[in-house]
């Protein structure tokens, strides 16, 4: 039987109305009986659970099972909530090369009728479908559907093989068609625990087939309640009635292989990685610039410790964390979110109408501009609101647009000091002096010419001119474009 974890930290139990099943009771029975069987709280099957297993206050329990079982769930008061049968059917792995189906390479034909043992063939009219030893990819045989123009037929497994509705199946085969456009199909037929038909899934459905043997590997999701299945192979469906051949070989059905074992203090079993270190640590250390990526929902009941950035897609929930930028969750919310990397009270700008979830809009500042500084941020200053300083028109003070200078007559004191040069020509006359013996009175003695200067005039003083200015104004358009932003602070966690 398959070792499987039926319930674990990621499974929370609710009733049909969505109410949490605190301290509910889980009964496990041998299939079809009222005989209780033992389950375990560890993958090593060392620590046996009580029967019933009592879930904790969070509606969770840890249950490992290595056999098939029927399950009965009751609430804490003993009221029936649900029942399930065959929750862990027969071992879903196989030592057969074909996985869960027999004779997938069509090597065995004990009665030599051309039909592989473990399979049932149905021919369309005129078709000849049989084992073929002229083409193969595994062993010496393949199975050939040969249509004469009506269609080939189908080949279906005789026996049911066990499945469950929690794990996807892998269907794998090699196919070749002489005409690529014929319609070839491989189907999984699903059945419930009573082996009644539920539905059919087409693993392969093609009218564009390879013309040389090509491997096809398809993952198929089971429907709810699936417990058994069969495989149906159709070669040259009658809806493409052509004369052609199709070959199949190396047909396998299996569950994806699960890595399991003990690797230096780490046990890998089914969907669990369990640390056997004394401190219980599991370290994920990507090399170089590698990273640990989580692409889907992540849930933890323990602590995530990171010395680097924690990055995850939507749906990530933490119960508790530690490390730079991570804060612990609370019991009431069961989780803090990855956005706790942003410390509470952090202020940020948002170009939107209202604060986003987890933030509060600040109204301390309104109608202001931003200034980038090289020193400490958060300061304020200035006196004029943004729209007062910047609007459609701004006028400057009135100044002159033209001017005229008044006339002024310089005074003697204002003109520069200067001389007036000139010359004078005349005669020298003798004057009769009493007692002189010679009377030359009135007679010129000699003619004389000499330069004459007028006394300097002008004081070199300063003077002024009056100015007449009629005045004018300047108008500037400061209707600048802008985008409104709001300041928000991160709420406390």
> Approximately how much helix is present in the residues?
under 10%
**CATH architect. name of the largest domain:** Sandwich
Strand content: 25-35%
Number of strands: 31
* Mean pLDDT over all positions: 78
CATH class wording of the largest domain: Mainly Beta
What name is given to the CATH topology of the largest domain?
Jelly Rolls
Structural class: mainly beta
The end-to-end span amounts to: 47 Å
Model description:
With 493 residues, this protein is mainly β. It has 4 domains: 96 residues, Phage P22 tailspike-like, N-terminal domain (Tailspike Protein, Chain, Beta Complex), CATH 2.170.14; 136 residues, Galactose-binding domain-like (Jelly Rolls); 56 residues, no CATH class; 69 residues, no CATH class. 1% of the residues lie in helices and 33% in strands. It contains 1 helix and 31 strands. Strands 7, 10, 11, 13, 14 and 16 form a 6-stranded antiparallel β-sheet that branches. A hairpin with a 2-residue loop joins strand 18 and strand 19. The radius of gyration is 53 Å and the shape is elongated.
């Amino acid at each position: 039987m398959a070792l499987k974890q039926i319930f674990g930290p990621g499974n929370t139990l609710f009733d049909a109305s969505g109410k949490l099943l605190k301290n509910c009771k889980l009964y496990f029975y041998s299939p079809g009986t009222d005989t209780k069987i033992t389950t375990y709280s560890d993958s090593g099957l060392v620590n046996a659970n009580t029967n019933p297993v009592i879930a904790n206050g969070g509606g969770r329990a840890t249950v490992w099972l290595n056999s098939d079982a029927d399950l009965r769930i009751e609430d804490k008061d003993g009221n029936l909530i649900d029942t399930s049968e065959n929750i862990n059917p027969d071992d879903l792995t196989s030592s057969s090369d074909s996985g869960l189906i027999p004779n997938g390479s069509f090597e065995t034909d004990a009665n030599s009728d051309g039909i592989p043992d473990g399979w049932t063939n149905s021919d369309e009219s005129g078709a000849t479908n049989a084992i073929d030893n002229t083409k193969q990819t595994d062993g010496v045989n393949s199975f050939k559907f040969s249509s004469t123009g009506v269609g080939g037929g189908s080949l279906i497994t005789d026996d049911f093989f066990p499945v469950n509705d929690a794990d996807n199946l892998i269907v794998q085969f090699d196919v070749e068609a002489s005409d690529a456009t014929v319609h070839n199909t491989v189907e999984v037929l699903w059945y419930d625990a009573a082996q009644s038909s539920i539905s059919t899934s087409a693993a392969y459905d093609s009218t564009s087939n390879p013309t040389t043997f090509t491997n096809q590997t398809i993952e198929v999701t089971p429907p709810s309640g699936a417990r058994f299945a069969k495989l149906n192979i159709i070669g040259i469906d009658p809806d493409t009635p052509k004369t052609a051949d199709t070959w199949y070989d190396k047909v396998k059905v299996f569950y994806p292989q699960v890595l399991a074992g003990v690797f230096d203090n780490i046990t890998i079993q089914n969907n669990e990685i369990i640390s056997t270190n004394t401190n219980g640590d599991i370290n994920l250390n990507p090399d170089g610039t590698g990273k640990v990526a989580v692409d889907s929902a992540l849930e933890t009941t323990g602590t995530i410790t990171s010395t680097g950035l924690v990055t995850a897609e939507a749906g990530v929930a933490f119960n508790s964390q530690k490390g730079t930028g991570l804060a612990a969750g609370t019991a009431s919310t069961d989780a803090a979110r990855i956005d706790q990397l942003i410390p509470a009270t952090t202020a940020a700008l948002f170009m939107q109408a209202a604060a986003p979830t987890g933030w509060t809009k600040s109204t301390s500042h309104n109608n202001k501009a931003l200034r980038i500084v090289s020193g400490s941020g958060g300061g304020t200053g200035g006196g004029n609101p943004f729209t007062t300083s910047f609007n459609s028109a701004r006028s400057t003070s009135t100044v002159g647009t033209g001017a005229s200078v008044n006339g002024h007559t310089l005074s003697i004191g204002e003109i520069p000091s200067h001389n007036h040069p000139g010359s004078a020509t005349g005669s020298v006359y003798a004057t009769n002096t009493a007692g002189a013996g010679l009377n030359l009175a009135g007679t010129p003695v000699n003619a004389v010419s000499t330069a004459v200067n007028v006394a300097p005039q002008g004081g070199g003083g300063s003077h002024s001119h009056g100015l007449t200015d009629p005045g004018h104004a300047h108008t500037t358009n400061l209707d600048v474009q802008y985008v409104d932003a709001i300041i928000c602070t991160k709420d406390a966690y």
